[in-house]
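Translate sequence into structure tokens.
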Amino acid sequence: MALFSIISGMLLIVLGLIGYFGLDSRSITALIPAFIGFPLLILGIVGLKEQYIKHAMHGAAVLMLLGLIGAGVRALPKAFSGEMSNAVIVQLIMFAICLVFIIAAIMSFINARKRRMA
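Result follows.
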């Protein structure tokens, strides 16, 4: 799960940089995916050490849950109303990355609990 956290963090950082430099908007809010991705990347690196993995991955899950809620609240209503600007597309991609991470984290936590109980 730590490696998945590192990869997801890098994806969010790249997404934020594309949103900021690749699109016509030079708003600081375009970097929000990178602001979520950088701490996620750090938590993934910390989680590579066995003694810190539990705390790091729980922290990563909370961070991604906040990213999921934030991106979803902003992007989903606009997407359903048909307003598909570049910013909305970036927010939807962030929402998808966060959703996949949360699902993987929940499955990982369930499997870890099952292993501990066995």
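Note: The chain has four helices and no strands.
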